[in-house]
Amino acid sequence: MKTICVLLLGAILAVEANYRNVKFSDPHQEFKDFKIKFGKSYKSWDEETERFSAFQDNLKKIEKHNSENRSWIMGITKFADLTRDEFIQTHLQGYKPLGVAKPSVARKNNINIADLPESVDWREKGVVTPVRDQGMCGSCWAFSSASLISSYAKINDMSHDLVEVSPQHLVSCAPNPLKCGGTGGCMGSVEPLAFTYASLFGVVTEEEYPYTSGDPWGAGDDEICKFDATKTDVTAMTMGFETLPHNDMEAAMEHLANVGPLSSAVAASDWGLYFGGVFDGCPYDENIEVNHAVALIGYGTDPAEGDYWLIKNSWGDMWGDGFMEGAGGFIKLKRNSSPMCGTNNTPLSGNGCVDGGVTSQHVCGTCAVLFDNSYPIGTTYMK
Question: Which option is the CATH number for 113-381: 2.60.40.10, 3.90.70.10, 3.40.50.300, 2.60.120.700?
């Protein structure tokens, strides 16, 4: 087994080395391969020409980035036919942090990082559901929430099978009357509203309420709630949610080590072409726009690239860290020993509750990963 692992690691490193030195000599062939691999088709020749233009620009970006020997590599992901602005508009409009104060958990005193495990990965404990794909819907908040509800139900009853609860149930049924993070459904919301909904009505399984809102031709599915609380037995319920102290690295690490995963708000505008390694591509001297929700499932240290936070995303398994090994969908964010901070200057451009009055937010950690972390409390299986 050890020999197999060493050979596999060698193969992975060889693929990564090749990607660092990649030269795309035939963009047309690369585009053909890309369309086949990711099942891409376009409605017209004009649209295909436009997508190919964006694809060519991304190939140049990938070549340049990977030649600079950074801690992470870029590659041809399913987003490679989009410009950065198009990527943000189509895949990062579903998480907007609350523009008002939220209840926080009192920080535990005297947290000593040296006393915590060197690495944590909740996948190893069998409490993390498979990576999903939110598709063309701003429902990251629902996927992050559903992932956390499933994890904590399992953590609180390890004798029960891990059950995947339905993001669609939350997308279609969790109300957002104050328009926090959008107007609800595919137009954005926040995890605390999902956790609160689950405390009142519970959540059914993915099998009972399958996800359909990610289909661009399935418009309207996010606006019609097909759940009847008077007739349906739910699978899991919460007692609400709690929030960690904002921008507190020790609190986040202690929680991950001793309690469970976290639902995390992040700035993901530059993640589209991420292919592996420890990502450090969110500059602190520019606007850090928090626009996505993910599941923070651990932390660790890469022997070459240093400390990282481990994140489960909702863009499918043909993206991100693990993609080259057939188990993608994750990203490792650089974890500095002393967190660096910056400012989100655009919380009101869709990034807060209507009339919230917040004009800026102090955010810390790579891509603001320490800014806003929450989790469901009292989560239990009901059947």
Answer: 3.90.70.10
